[in-house]
Amino acid sequence: MKTETCIQSNVSRDKQQALIDGLLVIPGIWVSGKTYWMKQGKKELSLEEGISLHLKQEYGQNHTQLFSFELTNHHDHPESVKVLFQHRSQNWDNEHVSFISPSEDAVFHMGADQVHLVNGCMGKGEVRKMCTIQPLWNIYKNRIWDCLDSGKIQYRPMAKGNVVSLLIYDYHFLGKGTFAGETWVINGKNDAELIHLNSSLLSGKS
Questions:
Q1: Taken in order 195, 201, 204, 206, is the CA torsion positive or negative?
Q2: Phi-psi bin for 50: left (phi > 0), alpha (psi -120 to 50), beta?
Q3: Which residues, in sequence order, are CB contacts of 2 under 8 Å at separation 6+?
């Protein structure tokens, strides 16, 4: 298995990973005040800090894209780590809208005649799930943080245009160990159907 350490906050358009029907996903890690994004085609991100992220990508039924992941602390000391998943339109679209739905605890992307629902579930342990919507240029300039050193993210519930949603899993390792989680994107034209499929996925993972 090839591993690669990504340059801090270095994301270029030709290194984006295509998901389904126009939506892109780019996984990454925040640790010790630094942000790393996974490069195209990679299944594992291994960092000098002793943290690694392993991904498994699958296509489910009903236009569903699934990612299962394992985040591992290879050192014995405690460490706070965030797993980040970028989701953005594959094409520049000033009419694209993304927003966080508090009732569904999920993110919606809406563009043209397509709707995408982004969500996931967490493994056991000291972990939180967070979401935010950011202008795309905030990613390139690493301005998604209120405080980069502490890992405090900027919270924005909605944006229009060239935007990116971030699904973030916040883990605290007490020592050496591994946390597992999953994230998914459901694509369709009917938001009620997407909500039903999302509920089914959550029920199946509980």
A1: negative
A2: left
A3: 42, 43, 44
Predicted TM-score (pTM) of this structure: 0.86
Q: Residue 1: how many CA atoms within 13 Å on its side-chain side?
A: 11
The answer to whether the beta carbons of residues 162 and 93 sit under 8 Å apart is: yes
Neighbours of 18 (CB within 10 A): 12
Q: Tell me what the pLDDT averaged over the chain comes to.
A: 85
Residue type, 123: G
pLDDT tens digits, one per residue of 151-181: 999 999 999 999 999 999 999 999 999 989 9
User: In the structure, how many helices (H) and strands (E) does the chain have?
Assistant: 2, 16
Distance CA 3, CA 52 (A): 9
Select from 151, 107, 106, 156 the least CA-distant residue to 136. Answer: 156
What 3-state DSSP class applies to 163? strand
pLDDT tens digits along 59-81: 777 688 899 999 999 999 999 99
